[in-house]
Amino acid sequence: MADADLDAVIRQLAKKQNRELMTAAKKRRDRFAGLAAKAKDKAARDTYREIAKNIMLQGAAAARRLQMSADNVADSYARSLRQAAEARANTALVAKKAAKKTGRKNAAPAGRVRKPG
After folding, report:
1. I need a surface site. Which of 26, 75, 93, 117 has the fewest CB within 10 A?
2. CA–CA separation, 40 vs 67, rounded Å?
3. Closest of 31, 21, 17, 33 to residue 60, by C-alpha
């Protein structure tokens, strides 16, 4: 797990949460569908059916928002790692050029002044 990319872990956790969220929404929908089946009059039956329908719509919308949020976080994390790696490579390249230019192995990176001594 230590070598696993955190962005992949974030996406996996979001998928698991989405499945659990949709399972819970389906249970609630089934409960209201059962109440609709047991209803004595048409108005109550239609009301329970509408509630069951709205539960699924809201559950699906919540799952979409959760997935979108997790994707954004995972993409942001991956992008920050890429940028950090590029910055590290650029710093090493600048230090290497500075060392080559001065002829010393331990030249200070560009922008830093070495203290005499």
Report:
1. 117
2. 40
3. 21
Structure tokens at 66: 């959760």
Q: Cα(38)–Cα(41) distance, rounded to whole angstroms?
A: 9
What's the burial of 80, exposed, middle or buried (CB within 10 Å: 0-12/13-18/19+)? exposed
pLDDT in tens, 7-30: 888 989 999 999 999 999 999 999
Residue the block writes with tokens 């090493």: 92
What is residue 4's DSSP assignment?
S
Copy the structure tokens of residue 117.
């001594």
Q: Is 110 helix (H, G, I), strand (E, B) or coil?
A: coil
For residue 48, give both structure tokens: 């329970």
Q: At what angle do helices 6-38 and 42-102 cross, to 10 degrees?
A: 180
Alpha helices of 2-116 — where are they, by DSSP H?
6-38, 42-102
Q: Residues of the chain with pLDDT > 90: what percent?
A: 53
Check if the beta carbon of residue 70 is closer than 8 Å to that of residue 14. yes
